[in-house]
């Protein structure tokens, strides 16, 4: 796209005005790639007493085992002081801990320094969270990621912009009047997910934030929405699992297994050598394990200047400090991780085929920020930048009291 068109395009912050900083845990142990490890960590925490429990917990200025906090919206964890908590672990939930890396989290407000309850209130069926990525010069990765699970503070991700302001896919987080203006210019009424699909497909990083070139050309819009919906499907991984064509599908040629290691007491996860990539063979090598074919586009896929596959492996094989809750984890490579890896390779390969759209698209009939200003669509009203204030259910406050919203 010509630079003048890009500079005239509206900001993502104008089109999706309500945003929230991502949740910040303050400690690593409440998340893990497998739910069983979290339950074991919880059991170890509640079996400890007094100073030992506090030390395992990892106190910060925001949270200690004596903090009084409300229940997370939509969750059923306790609200009593963690210092006297007992019983089973709250059921872990899926979250996004890094680009394309879905892991598990214990959804207990007492464990999280800054949980961002307003995000938890709108999570669920129909919701999609858009996460703007920090600009890294020369990085070819996407400027915007999308996920159907709650994104945590991880990597270089910026603010979180939910597609909907209320639970159940109600009240789109789009500046008032935008859908109507697009309908007038395009000749048909796009729905909120169409707007997000277009945004994911064409968003580009800028000096002052992510920009979203818009068009009044119906054919170009339809092409961008179609590509963007496929990108959303791959990023959110909802419904039918993605597959590469027969001859390109990755398979396990030699199993990924735990390897001998000089330090037999090594904590924190299964022992695997750092992944290596053979470009000639298009093979991903992990010790004696081998997966192929792995397209080079999947291995080279970066977000925020970080290679996604390498980051994914680091999260599963990093060394944790002995005696900490993070050190409680699987002692062998779980088969479920291999299945997740094969799907991740597939997703990255298919996304890599779609990313050139952003660079190659030539915008016709642009809808500029100036046009939206003149139409009264921008600037977004202050109320659109704040969360919805009234919900139709009660939330439990500290020590079992009801919270008022």
Short description:
With 405 residues, the protein is α+β, with helices and mostly antiparallel strands.
Structural account:
- Helices cover 30% and strands 16% of the residues.
- By secondary structure, the protein is an alpha+beta fold.
- It folds into two domains: 3-241 and 358-403, no CATH class; 246-348, no CATH class.
- The strands form seven sheets. A four-stranded mixed beta sheet has the order 1-3-2-6. A four-stranded antiparallel beta sheet has the order 11-14-13-12, with no helix packed on it. Strands 5-4-7 form a three-stranded antiparallel beta sheet.
- Helix 7 packs across helix 8 and helix 8 packs antiparallel against helix 11 (335-354).
- It is flat.
- The relative contact order is 0.17.
- Residues 259-268 have low confidence and may be disordered.
Per the principal axes of the C-alpha atoms, what is the gross shape?
A: flat
Q: Approximately how much helix is present in the residues?
A: 25-40%
Please work out how many helical segments DSSP would assign: 13
In the predicted model, the low-confidence regions spanning at least 5 consecutive residues are 259-268
């Amino acid at each position: 796209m010509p630079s003048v068109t890009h500079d005239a395009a509206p900001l993502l912050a104008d089109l999706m005005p309500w945003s929230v900083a991502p949740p910040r845990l303050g400690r690593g142990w409440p998340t893990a790639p497998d739910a069983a490890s979290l339950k074991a960590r919880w059991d170890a925490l509640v079996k400890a007493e007094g100073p030992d429990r506090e030390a395992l917990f990892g106190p910060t200025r925001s949270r200690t085992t004596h903090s009084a906090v409300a229940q997370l919206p939509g969750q059923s964890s306790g609200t009593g002081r963690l210092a006297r908590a007992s019983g089973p672990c709250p059921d872990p939930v899926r979250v996004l801990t890094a680009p394309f890396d879905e892991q598990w989290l214990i959804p207990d407000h007492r464990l999280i320094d800054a949980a961002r309850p307003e995000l938890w209130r709108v999570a669920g069926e129909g919701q999609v969270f858009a996460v703007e990525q920090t600009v890294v010069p020369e990085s070819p990765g996407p400027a915007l990621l999308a996920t159907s699970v709650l994104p945590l503070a991880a990597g270089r991700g910026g603010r979180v912009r939910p597609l909907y302001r209320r639970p159940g896919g109600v009240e789109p987080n789009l500046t008032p009047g935008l859908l109507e203006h697009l309908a007038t210019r395009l000749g048909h009424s796009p729905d909120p997910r169409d707007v997000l699909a277009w945004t994911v497909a064409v968003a580009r990083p800028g000096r002052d934030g992510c920009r979203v070139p818009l068009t009044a050309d119906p054919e170009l819009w339809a092409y961008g929405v179609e590509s963007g919906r496929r990108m959303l499907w791959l990023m959110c991984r909802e419904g039918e699992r993605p597959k590469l064509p027969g001859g390109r599908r990755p398979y396990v040629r030699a199993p990924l297994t735990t390897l001998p290691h000089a330090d037999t007491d090594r904590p924190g996860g299964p022992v695997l050598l750092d992944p290596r990539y053979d470009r000639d063979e298009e093979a991903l090598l992990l010790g004696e394990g081998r997966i192929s074919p792995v397209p080079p586009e999947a291995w080279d896929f970066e977000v925020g200047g970080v290679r996604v596959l390498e980051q994914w492996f680091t999260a599963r094989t990093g060394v944790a400090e002995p005696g900490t809750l993070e050190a409680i984890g699987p002692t062998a490579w779980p088969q479920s991780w291999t299945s997740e890896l094969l799907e991740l390779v597939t997703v990255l390969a298919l996304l890599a085929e779609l990313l050139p759209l952003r660079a190659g698209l030539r915008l016709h009939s642009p809808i500029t920020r100036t046009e939206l200003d003149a139409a009264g669509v921008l600037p977004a009203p202050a109320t659109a930048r704040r969360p919805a204030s009234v919900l139709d259910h009660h939330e439990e406050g500290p020590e079992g009291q009801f919270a008022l919203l």
